[in-house]
Amino acid sequence: MSQDADLTAQVKAEAEAVGFARVGIAVARALEEEASHLDEWLAAGRHGQMSWMATTASVRKDPRDPKMLENAQSVIVMAAPYVRRHGYEGPPPARIAKYAMGRDYHNVLTKKSRKVARVLQEAGFVARVAVDSKPVFERAWAERAGVGFVGKNCCLIVPGMGSHAFLACVVTTAPLTPDEPMGRRCGSCTLCLDACPTRAFSAPRTLDARKCISYLTIEHRGAIPTEHRQALGPWAFGCDVCQDVCPYNHTSGAADGSLDAFEPGDRWTGIDAAKLLQMTEDGFRAWAEGSPIKRARYEGLARNIALVLGNRGAELHLPVLDDARRSHASEVVREAAGWAAAELRRRLADSE
Ligand code: B12
Fold first, then answer.
1. Measuring CA to CA, which residue among 21, 24, 7, 15 is closest to residue 115?
2. Choice among 132, 244, 272, 323 that is catalytic
3. pLDDT tens readout for residues 102-145
4. Is the beta carbon of 206 within 6 A of some atom in ligand 1?
5. In a mutational test of the pocket of ligand 1, which residue from 129, 138, 144, 293 has the highest number of ligand atoms less than 8 Å from its CB?
6. Is 132 a residue of the active site?
7. Please, what's the b/e burial string for 76-95 (b: 16 or more CB within 10 A of its CB; e: otherwise)?
8. Does residue 330 share a domain with residue 288?
């Protein structure tokens, strides 16, 4: 076995040993097609308030950028599924995206990826870990490394495992043996594009984040535009609609290898949506510690919960919304609760 092949085998064995279900390798180089798509995406403003997507674009286009790793030779891409074995969907009547139910994947997978990087470092190479923590074009690399293919819903679909999987990358100066990319396999299916509640896909593989429920509930600061509020339906943090309808997530192997860390823990015991809206900022900080939900911040989650209660709440939620409308610490939440109280009253009147 050549030295490269030997190190490649060691890296892959370590990735599997620490719990990744798939691993693939690509040659580090400029991502030309993806770069021009990224430029168009940014120029059209589809990143919304995520200004960091624009400021880091040049690094994302080429991992050999000095801000990532000059002399990078290979990108190792690993996938870890987070499909749940339980039936819990979120604090009633709200729903939380599957990826956010357990512990924060940034922390869990960074620790595992560092062990993979250590194999390379011990062999004398530089290796940097990126788990959605550095401007690495993760889905593009996953596709090139043969881990899966990018579906019309923009998600990396891993045949036999589905798309409910996190990605983690190690960029390294080691010249490893690359894997073959696989072709795209969506065929003529458009279930994801048709199911999106806010019609957020401008075209297959092109998402307008400004309309995406995941963006609106996690990244967007301030008021959620009125035209999208009803379409949020039950989603209080993230959204799974474009993945849940995907036939690749209905195969029997879809749950293979899911890590316990991504199962919902005690955090959700005894919690309902009303309690989340009534939390103080300190209470939220303590409750959300170690969860990806921290990303929405106190104000964002309370805003989302208020809107969801407007869409899906019952009569018992009216006093909770009226209270938040009058006295929540955040103006954004007070406004959202005002909208939601009116929406809930309208719905209740309609159903009489
Ligand atoms: C910004 C971001 C978001 C934004 C924007 C999403 C988006 N589609 O761009 C928002 C907040 C909306 C978001 C939502 C979600 N995200 Co996110 N997000 C990211 C992040 C940080 C960057 C993504 C990015 O580069 N976007 C820029 C656009 C232009 O690229 P893209 O759509 O991702 O990439 C594809 C297209 O550009 C297309 N493409 C390339 N060339 C061309 C050319 C043409 C002509 C066309 C048409 C298309 C095309 O293929 C690219 C891949 O090559 C990555 C982590 C990372 N560092 O990469 C995580 C990441 C993509 N997110 C992830 C997850 C889990 C999610 C959610 C599922 C969470 C949820 N349940 O709510 C949703 C899924 C939404 C969706 N359908 O895409 C995972 C995805 C794992 C997977 N299996 O795909 C990642 C990889 C994080 C991780 N480490 O696991 N996310």
1. 15
2. 132
3. 999 999 999 999 999 999 999 999 999 999 999 999 999 999 99
4. yes
5. 138
6. yes
7. bbbbbbbbbeeeebbbebbb
8. yes
288 and 233, same domain (yes or no): yes
Considering the domain architecture, whether residues 23 and 145 belong to the same structural domain is answered as yes
Statement to judge: residues 196 and 162 lie in one domain:
no
Q: What is the domain extent for residue 273?
A: 191-241+265-351
Q: Is 165 in the pocket of ligand 1 (CB under 6 A)?
A: yes
| Cβ-proximal residues to 258 (8 Å cutoff; 6+ apart), any chain | 81, 82, 83, 84, 85
Q: Is the CB of 167 under 6 A from ligand 1?
A: yes
Tell me which of 139, 152, 196, 244 to substitute to probe ligand 1's pocket, judged by most ligand atoms within 8 Å of the beta carbon. Answer: 139
| Domain match, 105 and 214 both | no
From the CA of 33, give the closest atom in ligand 1: 41
Residues 196 and 64 in one domain: no
Question: Which residue reads 């072709």 in tokens?
Answer: 183
The C-alpha angle 140, 262, 214, rounded to 5 degrees, equals 55
Q: Is the pLDDT of residue 16 over 60?
A: yes
Name the residue among 160, 1, 10 with its Cα closest to residue 79: 160
**37 Cβ below 6 A of ligand 1:** yes
Q: Are residues 111 and 220 in the same domain?
A: no
Which pLDDT does position 84 carry in this prediction? 66
Number of domains in the chain: 2
Please tell me whether residues 43 and 132 are part of one structural domain: yes
Which residue in this structure is represented by tokens 């085998």?
9
Per-residue confidence (pLDDT) for residue 29, from 0 to 100: 98
Dihedral over Cα of 238, 275, 258, 251: its sign = negative
Residue tagged 């990744």 (tokens): 20
Does any domain span residue 161? Answer: yes
